[in-house]
Amino acid sequence: MSMMSLVLLGVCPAILLAISLWMMFQHRYHVAMLLIGMAVVTAAVGGLNGYREMDAQAKQATESSFDTTQREALAHRYQQAVEILQTQEFSHPDGQKLADAVKFLTVFEDETIVEKMQSDCPDAPVLLQYAKAMRQVASYNGHITNQDVNKDQQLLSLVQDLPEQYQGKLADKIVAFRRLIIAMNAEAEKQAKLDADNEAKHEQNLSQGKYGNLCPGDSEDKVTAAMGQPDHVNASQTSEGDLKQYVFRHNSKSIYVYTKNGIVTEVRQ
Question: Which residue has the higher pLDDT, 42 or 100?
Fold first, then answer.
């Protein structure tokens, strides 16, 4: 309790009561009663102030104790997550352990907590991002491919949000992981472009009759000379005449040659 509250609660009322007694000896009863009333009011004000001060001190002590407990709990969860992430390798990540790491670090999505715990839990938001990305990799059971990375927009988003020049906690693992995922995605994009170019070239070759120079209107006799032996031939008799479908495999692609009454009618994939 502060000095002011002690004065209001004890000293001032005592002085006022002493003066009121003197007034009563002097037969000045009205003044004495007034002084007694002032003593009661002063004591009440002092008591109220003292209660407020003690209540505030109790709350402050409780908050301080809570902060300490909370800080210790958060620091422990952070350390558990760091220990998990230190043991995880890209080639065989443990999905359950990574899920635990994400759970331990999720609280650091709160910027207030991040700021409050910066000294005890450095780079917690980056570690959380890394844990989420590694958990996504773990969903492929150790068999993630360049194409998987390219199609996994969630994984790419998580990795791209990792700092490119990161130098904080677990930097050696996080920087290498980011570079690997970015490189895998770039390789997948390169292969996709190459496949698209090959597909376009294949379609062009088909349309221009460049497979054995075989074109609609050619004699059926030219089919095997131009294309080689077919994998199989499907033949049928219809009211329109004799129809055949020759099936060939060329550069891992199927090519179909159609004839009608001994004349090539179509060459397509």
Answer: 100
